[in-house]
Amino acid sequence: MVALIDRARHWIVMTTPSRRQPNIAEAQPANASALDVMNTLPDPDWYEQVNGVEGPTVYTDPENAPVRILGIGGTTSEKSWSLVPLDIALDRAAAAGADVVRATVYELDLPMFRTDWKLEQYPPTLPWLLDQIRQADGIIICSPTYHGTMSGAIKNLLDMLIFLGWDKPAYLGGKPVALMAYGGMTSMGVLSGLTQVVRGLKGITVPTHIAVPERAVDRERIEITDERVLDRIDEMVTELMRFARQLRQPHQAPNIPPRRGGVR
Prior knowledge:
alpha/beta, Rossmann fold, two-stranded antiparallel sheet, 8 helices, 11 strands, globular
């Protein structure tokens, strides 16, 4: 287990949200609950540029900039075997030239999703996650298998992406998403469920999905030993990188000034 702890510590130094907390006063959409985003049309003024200059809520990279890949996964426990395949995929993406960031359920430490809460009422790790998604060119999601489907914590995290609903483009905005599941014979249910959620969030799943059986992970060496699984991870990452380069586009969050009595 020492190797797992060392590996996790390495990633925490690089990407833990607590070290990269955003300014809550600038969290977007400001002063808006999930219900507001779901039921109210955005104000066109929130997207206006000042003197033709893009505001701080527009995320765009030069064409020659490295592809940005965000990995999402883990459990409410600090140590999760489902992070092993996710880390391998991120390592492959980094080796291919991508800038990678990892967001885990444990590090985000998000409460249960509430439609009546405004973004500012959530921990600062949620605005951090939203900004990482806005900046990402591609996403990898890896969930453990809980009773034949994705974990409740992963679904809870994905439900909170409703706050991207006023973005342009909305939600995942056509970003490519690679899907992975860790678990037993029923892990295909995870991939099926994640596919439906990603489609609902306007993302595009890459063709190769991966179900990683528990026996494929060597728990002493903290690595995957099944060459067939590793080959599929390589294939999945290759697809993700290709789509990420081809589909990358500016992503804009609404610039909503705090207002009394609601968002309109």
